[in-house]
Design goal:
Elements (H helix, E strand, L loop, with lengths): L2 E8 L3 H13 L2 E8 L2 H10 L4 E4 L8 H10 L6 E5 L4 H10 L3 E4 L6 H34 L3 E6 L4 E4 L1 H7 L3 H4 L14 H11 L4 E9 L5 E12 L5 E10 L1 H24 L15 E2 L5 E2 L1 H8 L10 H7 L10 H6 L3
Parallel strand pairs: 1-2, 1-3, 3-4, 4-5
Antiparallel strand pairs: 6-7, 6-10, 8-9, 9-10, 11-12
Length: about 350
C-alpha cells in the first residue's frame, strides 16, 4: 500500500519534476504534488496548505534553492528540505546543508532520493514527537507551578527534589530553602511515625490518597493538611521516590468546627426554649411567673415563649356567672363561651 506524500517541488523543468515523482512512486509513495518556480508561487503554495516534503532544484532562472530554503525558514517551517540538482558541487552542497537543508541528491543519482526522503521524514516525525513532548512537559510544569496546592517530589529517603509555588504559599519556605532538605522538616515530632508508614507504602507501589494530617509551617504554626502521596517510578518501573500533593484544610476545618459549635448551641437553645420542667415561681395573687431574668410575666406569655403551645381565649362557666350575673344559672353552650374572646 502506497504512503501518501504531500510534495512541493521547486523546479523550472516539468520533465525533471515528473522524474522525481516517478522515482518516489517506485519507492512506495503516492505523491500529491505541486510544482512552483518563482518566489510568489512558492509563497502561495505554502500559504495554501501544509507539506510533508520540499524538494528543490538549486539553480533556476527566476529562483534558487537557497532562496527557497530561506523562504521556508522565515516561515519557521520544520519540513524536510532536500536539494535535487544536476549542477551542484560538493562545496555548494555542504554550504546548503550548513544553511539548513536536510540533504542533497544529484539528478543523475536519483536512486538516493527515496532513502533520503524516508530518513528525513522519520527525522521530522521524531522532531514533532519531541516538540509535542516538550510542549506537554511545559504545560504540565505550568499547571504544577500555578496550582494552589503544594506539589512536592522527594526521594525514598525523604530528600526534597521539587517544590512548587503552592508549596511556598502553604508552608512559607521558598524552593531554595527546601530543595535538598528532608521532608521531615514539615512533620511534627509527634507524627514522625507517618514518614515510615508512607515510605513503606510507596516502596510497595501503593498510593496514599487524601490522608488527613498535621504539618508545620516555617513559622512553626501547625496546619491541617489533606495529603496524597504517589510513587515515582523510573523507566524500568522501579520506585525511586514519591510525589506529594498537600492541600491546606485549616480554614475548612475551622469552618466545620464553627458550624458544629453553632449547631450545638442552637440545639441546646431549642431544648431550653421548648421544655418546661422543675419548680416554677408563680405569684399566689396575680398568677404571674418569674422568668430567668427575674422579671414577672403573665402565665400565657411565659408558656408561649418556652414551648410550642399557644392560647385561644374564652370564659369558663364559673367566670361567666361571676362576671355576668344577669345570666344567672342558665346553662351556656361551650361554643358560645369560647366565642366570647378577648
Amino acid at each position: 500500500m502506497s504512503t501518501l506524500l504531500r510534495l512541493l517541488i521547486v523546479e523550472d523543468s516539468e520533465d525533471d519534476a515528473l522524474l522525481l515523482v516517478r522515482e518516489l512512486e517506485r519507492g512506495g509513495y503516492e505523491a500529491l504534488f505541486e510544482r512552483v518556480q518563482t518566489p510568489a508561487q512558492m509563497a502561495a503554495a505554502l500559504d495554501a496548505q501544509s507539506w510533508d516534503l520540499v524538494v528543490s532544484d538549486y539553480s533556476m532562472p527566476q529562483f534558487s534553492g537557497s532562496a527557497a530554503l530561506a523562504l521556508c525558514q522565515r516561515r519557521k517551517l520544520d519540513v524536510p528540505f532536500i536539494i535535487v540538482s544536476g549542477r551542484i558541487g560538493e562545496e555548494i552542497a555542504v554550504e546548503m546543508m550548513r544553511a539548513g537543508a536536510h540533504d542533497y541528491v544529484m539528478k543523475d543519482d536519483l536512486a538516493r532520493l527515496v532513502p533520503a526522503v524516508e530518513r528525513e521524514l522519520r527525522a521530522a516525525q521524531e522532531r514533532e514527537i519531541h516538540r509535542r513532548a516538550e510542549a506537554a512537559r511545559a504545560h504540565l510544569a505550568s499547571i504544577v507551578e500555578t496550582c494552589e496546592d503544594a506539589i512536592i517530589s522527594n526521594t525514598l529517603d525523604g530528600t526534597i527534589l521539587s517544590w512548587n509555588a503552592g508549596a511556598e504559599r502553604t508552608y512559607g519556605y521558598s524552593a531554595d530553602e527546601m530543595i535538598g532538605r528532608s521532608i521531615s522538616l514539615l512533620i511534627p515530632s509527634a507524627r514522625r511515625g507517618e514518614l515510615l508508614e508512607i515510605r513503606e507504602s510507596i516502596e510497595r507501589g501503593e498510593r496514599m490518597e487524601r490522608i488527613e494530617t498535621i504539618r508545620l509551617r516555617k513559622d512553626g504554626r501547625p496546619i491541617d493538611i489533606s495529603t496524597t502521596v504517589s510513587p515515582l517510578k523510573d523507566a524500568e518501573g522501579r520506585v525511586r521516590g514519591a510525589s506529594i500533593v498537600d492541600r491546606d484544610t485549616t480554614q475548612r476545618r475551622l469552618q466545620e468546627l464553627e458550624r458544629l459549635k453553632l449547631i450545638t448551641e442552637l440545639t441546646d437553645a431549642l431544648a431550653r426554649a421548648k421544655t418546661l420542667d422543675g419548680m416554677l415561681p408563680i405569684c399566689a395573687s396575680c398568677k404571674k411567673i418569674r422568668n430567668d431574668e427575674g422579671y414577672w410575666e403573665l402565665v400565657e406569655t411565659y408558656i408561649r415563649n418556652r414551648s410550642n403551645a399557644d392560647f385561644t381565649h374564652g370564659i369558663c362557666p364559673d367566670c361567666v356567672r361571676t362576671l355576668y350575673p344577669e345570666i344567672g344559672n342558665k346553662p351556656i353552650p361551650t361554643s358560645e363561651i369560647v366565642a366570647k374572646n378577648f
